[in-house]
């Protein structure tokens, strides 16, 4: 009966319109459809974040405790970010690969310079 619904990134993205607007904040998913007209910060910012993880933008504003309390009424489930971590890893790999390639290029050049000299 009171089973908790889990939302993946893809599930959340299904609710990204003005008439069906979910946001993920702090690992929880909220149905903000009716709240959109009441938001003191306007509808535009909510529409921008619709169907996404809005944790950062929500925190950046420094919302009051009253704002956080309002969230409770909109709770619909837990956010299971299946993309967590995946985003960063390729970037890190690329960087270290670039450095390695650059370094080996450098030493390669140095070796041929030494060979040419002698
Ligand atoms: C369902 C989620 C949200 C709730 C319940 C909520 C609630 C509120 C409340 C009650 C205020 C008045 C000030 C305060 O009490 O802190 C406010 C202001 C504001 N909110 Fe939200 N908010 C939500 C999501 C967002 C998001 C995702 C953004 C994205 C940037 C945002 C941007 C703002 C801004 C810019 C203001 C300041 C408006 C002003 O001072 O002129 N809010 N919000």
UniProtKB/TrEMBL annotation:
Which intervals hold domain Cytochrome b5 heme-binding? Answer: 4-80
Q: Which UniProt keywords apply?
A: Electron transport, Endoplasmic reticulum, Heme, Iron, Membrane, Metal-binding, Microsome, Transmembrane, Transmembrane helix, Transport
Bilayer disposition of the protein: Single-pass membrane protein
GO cellular component annotations of the record: endoplasmic reticulum membrane
Query: SMART domains per the record?
Result: Cyt-b5 (SM01117)
Q: Name one Pfam family in it.
A: Cyt-b5
- The question of whether Ion transport is a record keyword is answered with no
Q: Does the keyword Phosphoprotein apply?
A: no
- Record's superkingdom? Eukaryota
Q: State its location(s).
A: Endoplasmic reticulum membrane; Microsome membrane
Q: Which PROSITE patterns match?
A: CYTOCHROME_B5_1 (PS00191), CYTOCHROME_B5_2 (PS50255)
InterPro entries reported in the protein's UniProt record? Cyt_B5-like_heme/steroid-bd, Cyt_B5-like_heme/steroid_sf, Cyt_B5_heme-BS, Cytochrome_b5
- Gene Ontology molecular functions: heme binding; metal ion binding
| Chief location bin | endoplasmic reticulum
- Family that this chain belongs to: Belongs to the cytochrome b5 family.
Q: Which PANTHER family match?
A: CYTOCHROME B5
Name listed for the protein in its UniProt record: Cytochrome b5 heme-binding domain-containing protein
Organism from which the protein derives: Modicella reniformis
């Amino acid at each position: 009966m009171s089973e908790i619904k889990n939302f993946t990134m893809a599930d959340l993205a299904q609710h990204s319109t003005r008439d069906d607007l979910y946001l993920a904040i702090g690992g929880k998913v909220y149905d903000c459809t009716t709240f959109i007209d009441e938001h003191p910060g306007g509808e535009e910012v909510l529409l921008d974040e619709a169907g996404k993880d809005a944790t950062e933008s929500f925190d950046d504003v420094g919302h009051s405790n009253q704002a956080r309390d309002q969230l409770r009424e909109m709770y619909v489930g837990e956010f299971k970010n299946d993309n967590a971590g995946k985003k960063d890893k390729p970037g890190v790999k690329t960087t270290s690969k670039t450095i390695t390639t650059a370094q080996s290029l450098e030493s390669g050049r140095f070796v041929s310079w030494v060979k040419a000299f002698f």
